[in-house]
Amino acid sequence: MHAGLGPAAAVFAISHVAGAGEGRVDVHVDCPGWSQEASAEIEARARAQLATAGDVSVSVVCAPESATVSLTRSSAIRRLGVAVSGSPRDAFDALLDAIASLVAESDHTLAPLADRERPTTDGALHSDAASRSHPPHRILPSVAMDAELWQGSVPVALGVRGGAKLSLPGTATVGGFLGAQWGVQARGDTAAWALRAAVRAEVDPVRHLRIGGAVEGRVMFASESGSSGTTQQQAVTAGICVGSRYVRPLGPVDVAVGPEMEAMVRPMAVDVASVEMFRVPIVVVGASIELTRR
User: Fold this and answer.
1) Is 103 helix (H, G, I), strand (E, B) or coil?
2) Which CATH architecture group holds 139-293?
C-alpha cells in the first residue's frame, strides 16, 4: 500500500457512541502511507457498517501490500490478514469485507454486510450502500467517450464529453457535462457534427451498478457537397436520457461502461434538394465508457 493520497503519515482513531440499543463502536486506523482524509473515510464507512453490531472495537494496521484487521467483541479478539495494493481507496472494499467476515464469525446471526442486505434492529433493510457511500459535497471530475446510432448516410456518431459531479449523501451524484460528436462512416460528401450539454443525476443502488438520467440539449451542424456547391444546415433539439452502467474501481477512478437511450423532443434531419440525407432519430440508442475521479 503506498501513499497515493497524501505525503503525511496518518494514524486516525475515533470512538463513536451510537444511539440507544446500538452499542459503542471504536475504530482505529493505523496506515502510515495514508492521508488523514483516507483514514477518516474508511473509519466512517466501517462505523456505518458496524452500526448494529453492539459493543465492538476494530483496528486496521497497514504494512506494504497487506493489512491486519482485528475485531474485539465480547472480550474475544479475532484477526484477519488482507492483501491490498494500489491506492487507499482500492483497499476499502477488501477491508470492509474482512470486517464483515469477522463480525459474522463472532455472531452467526449477522451475515456478511459487504455482499447482501440484512435487517437492522428496527426491521428496516440495511444494504451495502453504507460501505459504498462517498463523502458528500465533493467535486468529482469525469470524462467519457460514447457511440450512437444515427440513420441514413451518417449511420454512426462517436463523441467525447467532460464535466463534473457533486457527491451527495449516500451514493448519489448530480452534475453536468459538455461534449461533441462527429458522424463517422458517412457516405458520399455528407459530414455532420454536434455539440451537447446536459444535467445528470446518478445513484449506485447496488455494488457495481450505476443508473442515471439526464436532461440534454443538442445543436447539430451538417454539410453536403454537390455539383451546385456545399449546403450547410443546423438543427436544435432536446431530450431525456437514461442509462445504466457496470462500475469497477481502477486506481483513483471509477470506470463505468453501459448502454444509454435518449428520447428527443423531435428528430434532427438533414435534407438536400428536398431529399433527406440522414437524421438523428427521435429515439437514440448508444453506449458509453466513463472515468470518474473517486
Assistant:
1) helix
2) Beta Barrel (2.40)
